[in-house]
Each structure stands twice: as C-alpha cells, then as structure tokens.
C-alpha cells in the first residue's frame, strides 16, 4: 500500500484545475476510488489536482424542471438533499446506499461516474432517470447523456484532462422512481442494482424507464423491460414479462465472477426489477 | 472485596490505551537510522526462478542494498510439530526462494531503502525471470497420482499420513450398522485477518552481539527459540519483544521468513531494519486456516445410537509446512471425534498435502472446529436418515454428567462435564418445541425457517507437557509467572504468555486480587518481552487463563502463606491463629489487631523483624504444568430464515450456552463468545478463500473476501452453566475458541434445515446467496 511518488495541489477554480492537470495528472475528488488504485500501483499519476474544494462544483439546485448537481457534490449531500429527494428519489436512494457513511462523506458523484466501476450504484439511477453529464475541457464544454457516457467496464466518454462539472436530471416529481440493490456481502457494492422510473396514468403505466447495473459491465438502459411495462397495470403478468425481457436487454453486457456468476446476477436482475417497481409504487 | 473481584465484570484495563490510540504496536516503534525492507514476491504460484536482475533497482534513490536467496545464509524455517508415526516429511523452507517459488507471495528478494516508498519502488523494479510450472491448489487433487509435484523430497505431495484408531475395527462396525450416512465436507480456507497485520523490526549490536527483534508474536519465547536457531545466535543474545499485538487468531504463532530476514539484514548491514506488511501482503503471506477436504461417514443403529465416526481428511498444508501446521488436522482434530457423545468407534486418517498456496496453520479453534463441524453435520444427517428429531438424537447420545474424569474412545480423559444441563438450558432459551410449530406454520406461508442445534465439547488449555512430547510438539506446554510486590504494595505480575487482545491483563489481575487481596488497580500484568518476563510457551489454544492463571494463583498462594506467617510474627501470635479476610490478617478472637497485606508487604521488604528462617522480599515464581487439558462445553442454537428467491440468509436468533467453569469476568467471557461466534458464523455464511486454477488469490482484498459485519448478526442470547475443572486451582476452563468451534455447524445446520423442504441436502461453505440459490435451482429445477 505504498503509492508511487506524486505531487499534489488544490485547485480553487475549474479553470485552474484544467490548467494544472498536465499529461500524467489526475483530478482527485473524494479519493475513495483513486487512492486505493494508487496504493495498489494500478494507477500511477505524477500529479494530483484536488477539485473537492471548488465551490462551482459543489452545489445542488433545482430550477425550471431541471435538477443540477455539482460534479464534486458528495454522496452524503445528495442522499440528504430535499431537492434530489423530491425530483429524483432513485438517485438519492442510490447515493444513500454507497458504502458507509464515511465513504459517502468523501466520495463524490463526479468521481463515482468518472471511475465507472461496474458495481457502482449511482450510474444505474442516472441512466434510468435520463441524466445528462456536463463536461469541461481546456477547449470548451460539452454535454452527453448518461446512457452514452458509460461505454464499457471502467470506460466512459470522458477524455483525458476533462472535468465533470455537473450532472443534470429532468425533474420527475410526477413520476415514481426507485433504486434497489443486492449488495455484495464483502464490498457492499452492487451485485445487482436496478433503477426504475415510471409515469402512471391512473392504474396504467404510461411511461417506464429501467436500468440495470452491477450485473453488467456498465449501467445499461433496458428498453425491452420498459416496453413490457408500458400499457400494463404492473400486474404479475407484466412484471414477469418485463423480467424476461430484462434478461435480453442486459444479455450482451452481463458480467459475473466465481462467487456471483452471470446466471445468478441475471436472475437477480429480474427479481430486483420487481422489487424496484414495488418500491417505486409503494 | 477479595472474594467478589473473582466473577465481577469489571471493564478491561487494556481498553483505554487501545481505544485512544495510545497503544504502541511494532510498527509504532521508530528506530534511529532504520532502513525499510520490502520483499519482492512471486506473482506465480509455481515457477522456476531463471534469473534475477536487480541492477536497475539498485540505482534508484534511497536504495541501500538488495539481497536474493543465494545471498542469505540463514537456516531454513523449522517445522516445530513433528507428529509421530506419520511418515512426516519436512521440506526445506528457505527464508527466500532461490530456485523454485511455490505460492503467490513466496519471497525471492529483499530491498533495503531509506523509506518504505523507495523500498517499494525498488522492489517493483527488481526484474525476475520465471519459468512457469504446473499448479495445484486443491488438497484432494494434489494428493492424486499425476498431480504437479511441489517438493522433490515429498513424494506425491504427501507430507504425512496420520492414522487414529483401527481401520478394520471401524469398518466392521460400519458394515454391521443399520444406518450409515456419508458426506464430502469442504472446510474452506479462511484468512485470519487480525486487525494489525504482521510487522517486524530488528536491531543488532555488534559490540555485544545482541539482537533485538520486535515482532507481532503470540509467543515471543518461541520466536526467540526459532530466531536463535535460524540465525545461529545463542538464545541469550536474542531478545524478542512483542509490543502491543493487535489480534492474532493463531496467525502470529508461526515464525515467518520476514522475521528471519529483518534479523539477518540488521546483522548484515549493522543498522536497524523495519518491515510491516500491507493488508494485501497479509492475505497472500500470513498463514491461512482450515482447508480440508473430508470424506466422512457416521454409523448408527435404528434406535438412534451413534455407533461410529470414520473420516479421511485431505488437509491442505500450502507450499511449506508452517511452524505448528502438522499438529492441526491431526492431534487437534481427530482426538475430538466423539465430541460430547458416547461414540465408541472412531477412525481418522489425516493426510497432509502440499499445495501451491499460502501455508496453513492454527486459526482460532485450529482442528477442533473442523471436527465439531463434521460431527454435528453428520448428526443431522443421521437424524434425517432415521426420521428422528435431531435434538432427541443428540440427547440420547450425550455423555452423562461426570465431575472428575471420563475417558472417551479417542483416549482423551475429559475433565468434567454436564452436557445435558447446558443442552436443556439452550433449548429452553430458544423455545425449541414452539419453534418447530412456528416453522411448520411459516412453511404454509412460503417462508423457510430453520434451526440448528450444536452440542460440543473441546480440548483446550494446552496442555500437559508430557502429552506435548508424546504427540511430537517440539516444546513444553507449561507456563511460568512471577508475582512481584513492591514495598508500597503494588503488584507486577510477569508472565511468559503473550496476550494480544483477550483481556488477560484484566482477568489475570482479578485472579491475583482474589487470591491476595490487593486491589485490582494495584496489579499490573507484564508480558511480551523475553528479557523481562519468565519463560512461557505463549498465548493460543485457549491456554492463558487456564495455564498462566493457574501459575499466578499458585504463586499468589505462596505469597499469602508467607504473609500469614509474617503477620503472625508481627502480631506475636501463633500462625495457626491467623485469619485472613479481604486483604487483612487478624488474630482469631481479637479482630482489632490486624495487619493488611500492604503492611505485611512493607515489613517483608524492610526485613527489620522477620521470623526465624524467612527470607526478605515479597515475590514468588511458579512453573505450572497442567495435569490435563480443560474441556469447556455447551450448546449453541441458531434460527435462520432463507429467502428462496435470492438465496439470502437472515440470521434471526443466536443462542449460546457455554460452560467454561467459574467465570472470572463475565463481560470478557461474553466478549470472547461474541467474537468467536462472529468468526464461526462468517465461515458458515460468507468467508472463504478462492484461488483460480493458476493459484492466484481471487479474494486478495476485503472487496472480495467477506469479513463479517455487525449488521449480519442479531443480538446474541448468552447463557451459562458452571462446572468447575477438577484439576485446576481455580476451576476455570478456556473460552477463547468455543464460539468459533460451535457456531459454524450451528448456522450451517440451521440453513440446511430451512432448505430441506426444497430438497437441498448439501452446499459447500460459505453459504453465499448465489450458492444457496443455485442449490435450490438444482434441487427443484427452479420451480
Ligand atoms: C469502502 C468503500 C466502499 C464503497 N462502496 C461503494 C458502493 O457501495 N457503491 C458505489 O457506487 N461506490 C462505492 N464506493 C466508491 C465511492 O462511491 C467512491 O467515492 C467513488 O466511486 C469515487 O468518488 P471519489 O470522489 O472518491 O473519486 P476519486 O477517487 O477522487 O476519483 C476517482 C476517479 O474519478 C476521477 N474524477 C474525480 N472527480 C472527477 C470529476 N469531477 N471529473 C472528472 N474526473 C473526476 C479521478 O481522476 C479518478 O480517476 C466505495 C468506496 C469505498 C472506499
């Protein structure tokens, strides 16, 4: 647990952070994914630029039907935010299920999604709820949908030297959304995490969004499962059809290991889809 | 006061320094001018070392020296439990491999540098060229013909073949029995995971020829012995200090290469050397526990009499035979095959097998959990085969109460036991009969509840030295202690054992206080330094309270007798007329005339007025070699609910009734049971080493290796019965391992009980949700 030598500096603005990062530098926010990797020497930056105290990256606002979360907002802040709880409870739940309180006090949403651990919780909620990731580099800024942001195992659309400045979500106070997970008993990361976002018209499901993580190499949007729910009254038959469709949705992305093989994770994705729907409608 | 301190749940006296961070561990000791050692470790489980190029590493900043195996002139690390009549082979275990590496983590070179970072940089830069060799990690596979071979002098990878009992006699009993049940039981590998990883620092004084080694040891006197043998330094020139040690669970008994290497480097370079392992290194190179593949049979008659137990055990030793390793799956295992039951026929063949994995050795319970598990698992299987209530079956076979000696078929003589009393108490606490009704009701609602009941006894308080010799343990198993009282009546108790988290500084002080009347706060228990403390064989096998405690009780009694005679002399009375109560000596009939223990102590030191023939001073030493082991016992019960949809297990209740004789400090007893139960339940439910086919440790961090967490457990419901040991001065038995020994089968059996309506009969531990779910799918096709 002895990292290679590196320099450290704290940035006070997005511009100064971008200017400081250099060729083999890394931004550090909570450090809860980066430092373990450095201690194992899986990551060997020569420069750390600390972005955790940049005010512009910290806040959470809700205006014009748009929830905006700073790239360096912590999981604890998001989980406790009334604005997030109202506009997107699934994300508040996902952030509230990250690690333990100490991890949530340090870890940030930007760091979490930049790291793109397949077993992470927040990405699944972000993909289901249609989030947009706002990115800034030395050459300007751009935005990308959460669905496109996550590319593969530990791989995102983020380019070297780019910073996630904020994450925005449509306000879905009029929908029912939830995130549930089956935690790994050792790490408490997700073996399977499922997020759903439903719009109901009376007893009929008018719109559905479903995403799965943990069981997959990245958070995957599940159109087939969503289609099986739309138009139904979320009855048992619809739920079973959705669970069956879900295994096709995630089939290409499925992952597993000796302890929790793909077959188990795939089956649990269906089980937790039902549990997510019941949590959302409960 | 003096009579009540024994049995009082006073707070642990070691805790303030532990919980405020003031304790000083090995790695807290800063040595002027010390270099830091990093070990270059093999990334392969089995490979020939073709070449080592350290030239680039040697040029890095701060690097002072790099040594490989061929530079090091240390004797190999000894195996110190040479079990007899087993054709034991002890393959060479060099401190650094110079020819072949045999497990991932095997050391091939050491780097000494100014800082730990620089040492690690250089270790990464040492280029080792390996030629990979075939790998075997499963002990059963490794014992088969054609398996990759680890050591030229260990044919077929079989390090020993230990047999207990008469095979033909056992086979005859099984052939004639009404019922025989059989199972292949996997006792998975476990990682001991003490909170403090291992560390070692050494300093050598060339002028005096003295080596001081600070290390994470459960037995500094044994470490001195072995370090002396490995380095060639005479024992009186080696001082081993175990400062605060943050847990061990057996993993800090053995002598490791790293301790030998810091000692050697300190002598070679003439500067102090420091080393501390990372958690990743800890998981790779600190011993692992368990690792048995067992083939077990149990025979019974149709009316529920257990007739015999028979097992063939393939015990994974890993790449080398660690210090005590051969004794664990043999002496500490097979001798426990009757448990608390009247079983007349036992047979065990235990085969120690070399594998390309981290060496195994004693881990909390060490051999006894593996025996208790197989007995209790097979009891439930017999109950199933006979369609009998598992509780009724156990009750019918329990050994009746005995107060002073009961010889069982494995030749052990149990000291005392009243198994049915503990059994009844636990069943009453659990509400067993009501539970069966609730279980049936729940099943109607599609809920799967299960109960597991374990009756156990175990052998601890190791042990009579004569027995140690007979079973090949290369040491004694006595302890010694000195009770030294200062002129002002403050007590220093110097002990050879080396507690490391058990609370012994408190319990041992309570024994002295109750014997001699000094307030417990005036008593300091000093341990962990071979120069300061008298000889002792260490803290393991639940032996410190039974063995060191007995030595202290007897030394205290000698002092009390001296005090009585001196008090009589000072009060000009006949010693026979002296009465003692609560730390005060008085003359029968004239209670106003009294001498406190402190008054007497002072007068013994001043020696102005001593009785004829009495030496001055107030200090006594005692060597204590126990006449027998002690045999704590009890009954544990678990109630679980299994979610058949996910395979997740909810441990709803845990009841433990333990009998460790009179409890010196009930809070500390409860703490030991809590910790032990947590570790044992974790074996049943979540802990387990996984290697891939190449011998890579897949559970190399706590991301994958599942340590138990508080939210996995209900509040434990503890009860006790009190059956004193007849041979012990204060009647106590050990309690450090009972929780681990009893809890694994208890929870395992509870889960299998819950799953029985689904047709699931066997799952390898740990019972992870995925495995439970898969077993349910396999049993009923997922319906
Ligand atoms: C014990 C433990 C348990 C955990 N359990 C869970 C869990 O159950 N579920 C879960 O989802 N996560 C879990 N985590 C991970 C946790 O959520 C991390 O905090 C998170 O993944 C990374 O956030 P961070 O702020 O610490 O990022 P850092 O470690 O600081 O950075 C991670 C990576 O992101 C980059 N980065 C950071 N911020 C930005 C930014 N704004 N823009 C661009 N790049 C950036 C860094 O350069 C680095 O490459 C756990 C972590 C620990 C230590």
Topology (SSEs and partners):
The complex is a heterodimer of chains A (282) and B (783).
Chain A: E1 7-10, H1 14-20, E2 25-28, H2 34-39, E3 47-50, E4 60-63, E5 66-70, H3 75-80, H4 82-87, H5 89-96, H6 101-106, H7 109-115, H8 122-128, E6 132-137, E7 140-145, H9 146-149, E8 150-152, E9 155-156, E10 163-170, E11 176-183, E12 190-201, E13 204-213, E14 220-221, H10 223-229, H11 236-251, H12 262-281
Parallel strand pairs in A: 1-3, 2-3
Antiparallel strand pairs in A: 4-5, 5-10, 6-7, 6-10, 8-9, 11-12, 12-13, 13-14
Helix pairs in contact in A: 5-8, 10-11, 11-12
Chain B: H1 15-19, E1 35-41, E2 47-53, H2 55-58, E3 63-68, E4 100-101, E5 107-113, H3 116-125, E6 127-132, H4 139-142, E7 158-164, H5 167-176, E8 179-190, E9 199-205, E10 210-215, H6 220-231, E11 238-241, H7 257-269, E12 273-276, H8 279-285, E13 289-300, E14 306-318, H9 331-334, E15 345-354, H10 368-386, H11 390-397, E16 406-407, E17 413-414, H12 419-430, H13 432-444, E18 448-457, H14 465-470, E19 479-485, E20 491-495, H15 504-516, E21 523-526, H16 544-570, E22 578-581, E23 584-587, E24 590-596, H17 597-606, E25 619-624, E26 633-642, E27 649-659, H18 666-685, E28 716-720, H19 738-755, H20 769-780
Parallel strand pairs in B: 1-12, 10-11, 14-15, 20-21, 27-28
Antiparallel strand pairs in B: 1-5, 2-4, 2-6, 3-5, 7-15, 8-13, 9-10, 9-12, 13-14, 16-17, 18-26, 19-20, 19-25, 22-23, 23-24, 26-27
Helix pairs in contact in B: 10-19, 15-16, 16-17, 18-19
The structure holds flavin-adenine dinucleotide.
């Amino acid at each position: 647990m002895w990292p290679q030598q590196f320099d450290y500096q704290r940035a006070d603005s997005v511009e100064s952070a971008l200017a400081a990062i250099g060729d083999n530098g890394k931004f550090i926010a909570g450090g809860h994914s980066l430092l373990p990797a450095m201690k194992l020497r899986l990551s060997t930056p020569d420069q750390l630029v600390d972005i955790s105290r940049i005010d512009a990256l910290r806040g959470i606002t809700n205006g014009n039907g748009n929830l905006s979360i700073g790239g360096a907002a912590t999981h604890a802040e998001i989980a406790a935010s009334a604005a997030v709880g109202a506009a997107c409870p699934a994300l508040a739940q996902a952030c509230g299920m990250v690690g333990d309180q100490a991890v949530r006090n340090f870890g940030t949403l930007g760091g979490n999604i930049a790291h793109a651990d397949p077993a992470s919780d927040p990405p699944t909620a972000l993909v289901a709820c249609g989030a947009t990731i706002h990115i800034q580099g030395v050459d300007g800024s751009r935005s990308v949908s959460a669905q496109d942001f996550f590319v593969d195992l530990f791989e995102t659309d983020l380019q070297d030297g780019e910073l996630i400045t904020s994450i925005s979500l449509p306000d879905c106070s009029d929908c029912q959304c939830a995130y549930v997970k089956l935690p790994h008993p050792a790490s408490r990361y997700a073996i399977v995490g499922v997020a759903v976002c439903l719009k109901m018209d009376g007893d009929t499901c008018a719109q559905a969004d479903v995403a799965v993580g943990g069981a997959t190499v990245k958070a995957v949007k599940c159109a087939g499962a969503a289609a099986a729910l739309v138009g139904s009254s979320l009855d048992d038959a619809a739920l079973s059809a959705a669970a069956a469709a879900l295994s096709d949705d995630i089939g290409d992305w499925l992952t597993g290991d000796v302890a929790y093989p793909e077959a188990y994770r795939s089956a649990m994705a269906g089980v937790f889809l039902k549990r997510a729907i019941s949590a959302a409608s409960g | 006061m003096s009579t009540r301190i024994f049995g009082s749940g006073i707070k642990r006296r070691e805790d303030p320094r532990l919980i405020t961070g003031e304790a000083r561990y090995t790695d807290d000791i800063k040595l002027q001018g010390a270099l830091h050692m990093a070990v270059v470790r093999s990334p392969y489980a089995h490979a020939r070392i073709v070449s080592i190029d350290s030239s680039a590493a040697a040029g890095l900043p701060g690097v002072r020296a790099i040594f490989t195996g061929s530079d090091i002139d240390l004797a190999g690390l000894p195996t110190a439990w040479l079990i007899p009549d087993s054709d034991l082979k002890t393959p060479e275990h060099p401190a650094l491999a110079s020819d072949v590496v045999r497990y991932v983590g095997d050391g091939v070179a050491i780097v000494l540098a100014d800082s730990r970072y620089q040492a690690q940089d250089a270790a990464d830069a040492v280029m080792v060229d390996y030629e990979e060799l075939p790998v075997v990690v499963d002990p059963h596979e490794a014992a088969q013909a054609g398996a990759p071979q680890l050591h030229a002098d260990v044919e077929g990878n079989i390090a020993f073949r230990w047999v207990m009992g008469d095979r033909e006699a056992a086979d005859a009993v099984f052939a004639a029995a009404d019922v025989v049940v059989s199972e292949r039981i996997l006792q998975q590998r476990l990682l001991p995971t003490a909170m403090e990883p291992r560390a070692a620092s050494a300093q050598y004084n060339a002028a005096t020829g003295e080596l001081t080694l600070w290390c994470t040891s459960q037995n500094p006197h044994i470490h001195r012995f072995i370090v002396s043998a490995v380095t060639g330094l005479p024992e009186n020139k080696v001082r081993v200090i175990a400062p605060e040690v943050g847990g061990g669970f057996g993993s800090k008994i053995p002598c490791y290469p790293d301790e030998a290497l810091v000692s050697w480097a300190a002598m070679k370079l003439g500067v102090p050397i420091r080393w501390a392992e990372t958690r990743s290194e800890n998981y790779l190179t600190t011993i692992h526990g368990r690792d048995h593949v067992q083939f077990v049979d149990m025979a019974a008659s149709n009316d529920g009499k257990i007739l015999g137990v028979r097992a063939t055990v393939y015990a994974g030793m890993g790449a080398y035979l660690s210090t005590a390793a051969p004794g664990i799956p043999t002496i500490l295992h097979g001798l426990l095959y009757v448990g608390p039951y009247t079983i007349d026929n036992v047979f065990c063949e235990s085969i120690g097998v070399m594998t390309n994995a981290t060496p195994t050795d004693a881990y909390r319970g060490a051999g006894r959990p593996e025996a208790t598990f197989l007995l209790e698992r097979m009891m439930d299987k017999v109950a199933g085969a006979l369609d009998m209530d598992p509780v009724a079956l156990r009750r019918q076979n329990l050994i009746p109460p005995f107060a002073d000696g009961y010889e069982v078929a494995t030749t052990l003589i149990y000291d005392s036991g009243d198994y049915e009393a503990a059994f009844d108490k636990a069943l009453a606490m659990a509400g067993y009969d009501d539970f069966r009704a609730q279980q049936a009701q729940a099943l109607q609602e599609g809920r799967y509840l299960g109960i597991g009941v374990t009756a156990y006894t175990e052998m601890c308080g190791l042990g009579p030295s004569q027995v140690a010799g007979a079973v090949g343990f290369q040491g004694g198993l006595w302890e010694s202690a000195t009770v030294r009282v200062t002129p002002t009546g403050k007590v220093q108790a110097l002990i050879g054992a080396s507690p490391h988290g058990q609370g012994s500084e408190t319990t041992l002080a309570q024994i002295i206080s109750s014997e001699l009347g000094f307030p417990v706060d005036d008593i300091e228990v000093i341990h962990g330094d071979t120069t300061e403390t008298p000889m002792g064989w260490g803290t393991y096998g639940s032996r410190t309270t039974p063995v060191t405690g007995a030595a202290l009780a007897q030394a205290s009694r000698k002092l009390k007798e001296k005090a009585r005679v001196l008090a009589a002399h000072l009060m000009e009375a006949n010693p026979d007329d002296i009465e003692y109560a609560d730390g005060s000596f008085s003359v029968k009939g004239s209670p106003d005339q009294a001498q406190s223990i402190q008054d007497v102590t002072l007068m013994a030191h001043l020696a102005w007025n001593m009785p004829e023939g009495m030496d001055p001073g107030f200090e006594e030493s005692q060597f204590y070699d126990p006449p027998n082991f002690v045999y704590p016992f009890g009954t544990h019960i678990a109630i679980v609910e299994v979610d058949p949809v996910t395979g997740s297990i909810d441990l709803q209740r845990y009841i433990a009734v333990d009998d460790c004789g009179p409890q010196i400090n009930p809070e500390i007893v409860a703490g030991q049971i809590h910790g032990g139960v947590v570790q044992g339940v974790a074996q049943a439910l979540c802990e387990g080493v996984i290697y891939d086919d190449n011998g890579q440790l897949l559970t190399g961090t706590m991301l994958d290796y599942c340590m138990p967490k508080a939210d996995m457990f209900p509040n434990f419901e503890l009860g006790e019965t009190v059956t004193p040991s007849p041979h012990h001065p204060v009647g106590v038995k050990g309690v450090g391992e009972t929780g681990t020994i009893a809890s694994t089968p208890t929870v395992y059996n509870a889960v299998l009980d819950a799953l029985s309506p689904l047709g699931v009969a066997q799952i390898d531990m740990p019972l992870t949700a995925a495995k439970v779910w898969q077993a349910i799918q396999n049993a009923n096709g997922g319906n």
